[in-house]
Write a structure and sequence with these properties.
alpha+beta; Butyryl-CoA Dehydrogenase, subunit A, domain 2; Butyryl-CoA Dehydrogenase, subunit A, domain 3; 3 domains; 8 strands; 13% strand
Length: 404
């Protein structure tokens, strides 16, 4: 296996310089301050500027609004955005568009494709419900047909980026008499449709998610994706991609889908390392303290292990490493570590304190770690579906009657 650095061509180096210059221009302190104030890690101006360059769908053809970048240039772009913590959390277009492209009616695809490319169409996930836990197939949000239209009633939770989204990829119950996976239908619902209400739901990590309510929301049948009562098939592609089930698109993709969960903690480790070069510790700076260095070394090894853990296992490893090591970093640094942004004496604008809060929700993002452990058990280890107490589908005869 070759671990040497990728040698850039002249064109790739020129692109790298272009990306850095673009971000130098657009990532102003005002942009960061606005994203912090809104707690949504999104700046529309930056997003649309990227869309104008074809960088939101960088591998699409130029005539489709993309930039026709090769895999290396795509990775350069991704790395620079991540390194600078660019506020570009504009939704889940990458997950949802392939399903729209396959299952949407032609005029809907033709309408939305250029908007996905230029950034004016932003999709969000309408999966979870307040009483549904991680079982999204247990959706109770109803969609009832009325001629050429559908009427939707219900609610969703954790609709992240709904305040910035234009369409919600919505799973609904269209036939309550069918088994739960069979009576579902998917829609791509415009967020400006009358009857939709978005309510902010702040998190401990200073990131906003949302509750979304649907009250007699009336939409045309053109927004249905796939066949009626076959929504689970439509959902499978985006769900498998989110869960890292299936093949990789590029050899330069992150091996671990847990990489993103560690980004705040990695920033905190770098901040602590810089702080330790000057921070006194009795006989000298903290950076010379063997206990401190051992702790940092342990964290870096854990980070590398998480980077190298593939598939659903990497998602769990990334969250576990982020949460555990954010706690360890506070123990190593001491009281200064818990000073937040804006406080006197804070380290790197509160990077360590912010990391500790931000990583707590990584155990939930994109499906809880418990869900991923079940995926590992069934898809990777070949273990049978668990028979939990109360699962009526596994109960027979008198036991089923008693459980009911």
């Amino acid at each position: 296996m070759d671990f040497s650095a990728v040698a850039l061509t002249e064109a790739q180096q020129k692109f790298s310089d272009e990306v850095r210059a673009f971000l130098d221009e657009h990532l102003t302190e005002e942009v960061y301050a606005g994203a912090r104030e809104r707690t949504d890690h999104f700046d529309e101006g930056l997003w649309l500027a990227m869309g104008a360059k074809g960088w939101l769908q960088p591998q699409w053809k130029k005539e489709d609004g993309g930039a026709e970048l090769d895999d290396i240039c795509v990775k350069i772009l991704e790395n620079e955005l991540r390194k600078r913590d660019a506020p570009v959390a504009g939704g889940a277009n990458g997950l949802i568009w392939p399903a729209v492209d396959v299952y949407g009616v032609p005029d809907l695809r033709e309408e939305l494709k250029p908007k996905v490319a230029d950034g004016t169409a932003r999709f969000v996930l309408g999966y979870s419900e307040p009483d549904g836990g991680s079982d999204i197939a247990n959706a109770k949000t109803r969609a009832e047909r009325d001629g050429d239209e559908w009427v939707i009633n219900g609610q969703k939770i954790f609709t992240t980026s709904a305040q910035n989204g234009t369409h919600v990829f919505l799973i609904t119950r269209t036939d309550p008499n069918l088994p739960k996976h069979k009576g579902l239908t998917m829609f791509l619902v415009p967020m400006d449709t009358p009857g939709i209400e978005v309510q902010a739901l702040p998190t401990v990590g200073d990131e906003r998610t949302n509750l979304t309510y649907y009250g007699d929301v009336r939409i045309s049948d053109r927004y249905r994706l796939g066949e009626v009562n076959n929504g689970w098939s439509v959902l499978h592609g985006p769900l498998d991609a989110e869960h890292s089930i299936g093949g990789e698109a590029s050899k330069l993709e992150d091996l671990s889908i847990g990489t993103g969960h560690m980004r705040y903690m990695l920033t905190a480790v770098e901040a602590a390392t810089k702080w330790a070069k000057d921070a006194p510790d009795g006989d000298g700076p903290m950076i010379d303290d063997k206990t401190f260095l051992t702790g940092l070394g342990h964290m870096l090894v854990e980070i590398e292990a998480a980077y190298a853990t593939p598939g659903p296992m990497g998602r769990i490893k990334g969250a576990d490493v982020a949460i555990a090591n954010s706690e360890r970093l506070i123990d190593l640094v001491g009281p200064e570590a818990i000073l937040p942004y804006g406080a006197d004496g804070t380290i790197a604008n509160g990077a360590i304190e912010a990391s500790h809060r931000a990583v707590q929700v990584t155990a939930t993002y994109g499906g809880t770690t418990e869900v991923f452990r079940t995926i590992i058990a069934q898809h990777h280890l070949g273990l049978p579906r668990p028979d939990y107490p109360g699962r009526k589908v596994f109960l027979q005869g008198r036991d089923a009657t008693a459980a009911a």
